[in-house]
């Protein structure tokens, strides 16, 4: 794959238009600059029209969504075993929060850059799938180090003083790599769905994603809850952790492969409508806007030909038409625009995004902060508050036994969460015609906020397990509604451009999905850095569900006031 380099230039060129009746894939996006002032006038800068892809069968959409089953299966395994594995290799408690902070910090800094870079990937396999494959392999490497690091170090290192140090380093590296890749991969997966699907298929595909996400989490928690140490597999493979790794690696490998071959993706530099030499078009580039949302750093362009030619094209993350353009003179070789993705240009682009995109990112941040605040400490809450155990008591004491029992019951509660998430993904489809996307968004946050407040105020075991179902409502909401809103916003942009007399146009989805996904990393940073101090200050983990409730209910108000309504 190649990214557009800094030392390339481009001349003003005609573009190719498709023959009648042929589709243009979603890799052909307008070169549009969406500053706040020019958002409604962006049709002037369009060069390439976009025809909606044809509809896909239910089977292909389900195959595309299977990657979410594998991803969530592995996530559940990590959630169930990360604490015992890290503590078993001797990691000091004072360093435990560092594990949760490294990955989201890297993800928050790099997610939009990778997301927008995938808009320019010119691999013959497509734009998104090379990134998905690379991140999928990285997830598998992290899972391998995380669950097998201690065993491998024990075989290779004989010095006892070095064995513990190397085991901590390898296991921590595995956790960080897995978290980093698993968080990162969501953006390219969603952009892949948006690129290859029609508008109606996007909605169907996101519902299948949510359904299989819930089922994957449920199966992952069930596999983690079983005692594999005394089973035939446990004796054959060596330990319980190796059995869990076997199931996780097999599940992830199979479903990642199914996903990558589910729906063909059109390469960036291949026009399916081009069966012969390119034909010049009467369309000319008229936009003169400055850099804005989705814009790259603009470099000066050298004139080509006998007369001065000024390049008026705005630089956009999703301005992909240049890969399909041809030279205006047979004497000049085809050269690409001078573009370079930098962290500074990425941050500038995100700050200049239209207000409704920015508000959606803020609401997504609030939702994930509330959700992670509750989920990361839920089993500890069950052990200490519901079962009144003590994790610091002697391991043969009654207090510690009660704590362990509470943690086990908490894992079953998380399994209920995963199942309810899968079920609610279907309930959403029936509620959508009545209350709309914004209504579903509000209901998800409100239900979660109300449920977590009741859990914190009335910590009864039966009541808590029943209320675990509201976790699934929030999980399904976070995995589907924001991305559905992105799709609706992009469709609205197309309609606005059509009102200008141009064909329906849209930007690439990479930077939009990446902007949402990096809010998950930012939420992890906030929770990892602040919640532990809040628990220490309060002296009890009962503050965890109450804090989640407050943040979620505040998110309800934010959604009601700021999130843009779409039909």
TrEMBL record:
What's one GO MF term for it? sucrose:proton symporter activity
* Classification via SUPFAM superfamilies: MFS general substrate transporter (SSF103473)
- What Gene Ontology cellular component terms go with this record? membrane
Cellular compartments annotated:
Membrane
Q: Which residues cross the membrane?
A: 97-118, 130-147, 167-185, 206-223, 243-261, 357-378, 407-427, 439-458, 464-487, 508-535, 541-563
Q: What is its main location?
A: membrane
Is Transport tagged as a keyword? yes
Q: How does it sit in the membrane?
A: Multi-pass membrane protein
Q: Which UniProt keywords apply?
A: Membrane, Transmembrane, Transmembrane helix, Transport
Query: Which is an annotated Pfam family here?
Result: MFS_2
The name this protein carries in UniProt is Membrane-associated transporter protein
* Species name: Dissostichus eleginoides
């Amino acid at each position: 794959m190649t990214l557009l380099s800094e030392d390339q230039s481009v001349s003003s060129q005609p573009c190719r238009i498709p023959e009648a009746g042929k589709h243009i894939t979603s890799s052909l996006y307008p070169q549009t600059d969406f500053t706040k002032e020019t958002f409604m006038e962006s049709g002037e800068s369009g060069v390439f029209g976009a025809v909606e892809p044809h509809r896909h069968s239910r089977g292909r959409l389900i195959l595309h969504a299977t990657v979410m089953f594998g991803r969530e299966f592995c996530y559940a395994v990590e959630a169930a075993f990360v604490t015992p594995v890290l503590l078993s290799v001797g990691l000091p408690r004072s360093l435990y929060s560092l594990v949760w902070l490294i990955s989201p910090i890297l993800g928050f800094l790099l997610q939009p850059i990778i997301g927008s870079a995938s808009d320019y990937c010119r691999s013959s396999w497509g734009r998104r799938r090379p990134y998905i494959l690379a991140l999928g392999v990285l997830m598998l490497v992290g899972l391998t180090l995380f669950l097998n690091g201690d065993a491998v170090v024990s075989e290779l290192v004989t010095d006892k003083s070095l064995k513990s140090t190397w085991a901590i380093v390898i296991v921590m590296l595995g956790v960080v790599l897995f978290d980093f890749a698993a968080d990162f991969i969501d953006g390219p997966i969603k952009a892949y769905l948006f690129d290859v699907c029609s508008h109606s298929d996007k909605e169907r595909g996101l519902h299948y994603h949510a359904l299989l996400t819930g089922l994957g989490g449920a199966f992952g928690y069930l596999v983690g809850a079983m005692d594999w140490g005394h089973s035939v597999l446990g004796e054959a493979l060596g330990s319980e952790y190796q059995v869990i790794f076997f199931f996780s690696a097999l599940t992830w490998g199979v479903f990642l492969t199914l996903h990558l071959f589910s729906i063909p993706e059109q390469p960036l530099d291949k026009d399916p409508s081009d069966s012969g030499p390119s034909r010049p078009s009467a369309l000319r580039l008229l936009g003169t806007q400055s850099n804005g949302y989705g814009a790259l750093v603009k470099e000066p362009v050298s004139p080509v030909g006998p007369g001065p030619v000024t390049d008026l094209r705005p630089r956009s993350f999703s301005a992909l038409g240049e890969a399909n353009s041809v030279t205006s003179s047979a004497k000049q070789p085809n050269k690409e625009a001078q573009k370079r993705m930098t962290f500074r240009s990425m941050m500038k682009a995100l700050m200049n995004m239209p207000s409704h995109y920015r508000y959606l990112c803020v609401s997504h941040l609030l939702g994930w902060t509330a959700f992670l605040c509750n989920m990361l400490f839920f089993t500890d809450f069950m052990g200490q508050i519901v079962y009144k155990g003590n994790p610091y008591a002697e391991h043969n004491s009654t207090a510690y036994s009660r704590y362990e029992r509470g943690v086990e019951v908490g894992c079953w509660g998380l399994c209920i969460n995963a199942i309810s998430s899968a079920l609610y993904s279907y309930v959403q489809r029936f509620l959508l015609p009545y209350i709309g996307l914004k209504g579903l968004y509000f209901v998800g946050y409100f239900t979660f906020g109300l449920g977590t407040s009741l859990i914190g105020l009335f910590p009864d075991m039966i009541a808590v397990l029943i209320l675990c179902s509201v976790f699934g409502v929030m999980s399904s909401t976070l995995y589907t509604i924001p991305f559905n809103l992105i799709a609706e916003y992009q469709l609205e942009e197309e309609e606005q451009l059509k009102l200008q007399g141009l064909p329906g146009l849209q930007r690439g989805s990479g930077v939009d999905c990446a902007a949402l996904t990096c809010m998950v990393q930012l939420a992890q940073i906030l929770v990892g850095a602040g919640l532990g101090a809040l628990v220490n200050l309060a002296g009890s983990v009962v503050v965890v569900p109450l804090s989640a409730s407050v943040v979620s209910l505040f998110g309800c108000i934010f959604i009601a006031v700021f999130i843009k309504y779409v039909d």
